[in-house]
Specification:
- This protein has 4 helices and 9 strands.
- Strands 3, 4, 5, 6, 7, 8 and 9 form a 7-stranded mixed beta sheet that branches. A two-stranded antiparallel sheet has the order 1-2.
- It has a single domain (5-163), classed as Nucleoside Triphosphate Pyrophosphohydrolase, CATH 3.90.79.
- By secondary structure, it is an alpha+beta fold.
- 32% of the residues are buried.
Length: 166
């Protein structure tokens, strides 16, 4: 399987080139990603525990779904694609945009759009992407992030603290 190619962007999130995934990550080049938070009718959020096969944040808890924007792809189609690929959730339209985070160390130099949608599951977790997943109340996640932030992907900690300031 050939290596993914990502768009490289400038400080205004404008595409200025392309490079293979390994080069983008090794050189800390700015690129794009999405995070989707899936909530159920009871207000719980579904979190995934990343597979140990992942190249970054192995075994860390993360957003319901997250992933890189492919070359030539925009954020909204990426969000729809990633929830389908990672948790088997088929969306008819892009989820609700919540906010955008500028590329920084915590995001791995990714500009990230954060989305929200509602679904009940059960989900079909992609075994190469996700070890496990579960539903948590926002209060449980807030306490967990405060007490043991090292158990989460760094981008998720930033996202959660933006959504739920202390």
């Amino acid at each position: 399987m050939s290596e993914e190619i990502f768009d490289i962007v400038n400080d205004r999130d404008e595409v200025i080139g392309q490079a293979p995934r390994s080069e983008v990550h090794a050189r800390g080049l700015w690129h794009r990603a999405i995070h989707v938070l899936v909530y159920n009718a009871r207000g719980q959020v579904f979190l995934q525990k990343r597979s140990l096969k992942k190249d970054t944040a192995k075994g860390k808890w993360d957003s319901s779904s997250s992933g890189h924007v492919d070359t030539g792809e925009d954020y909204d189609p990426c969000a729809v694609r990633e929830v389908r690929e990672e948790i088997g959730l088929v969306l008819e339209r892009p989820p609700e945009r919540l906010f955008k985070i500028a590329a920084c160390r915590e995001t791995g130099w990714e500009f990230c759009w954060v989305y929200r949608c509602t679904a009940e599951g059960p989900f079909q977790l992609h075994p190469d992407e996700i070890e496990t997943g579960d539903w948590f109340t926002p209060e449980e996640v807030t306490r967990w992030v405060q007490d043991r932030p090292q158990e989460f992907a760094r981008a998720f900690v930033l996202i959660w603290q933006t959504l739920h300031p202390i």
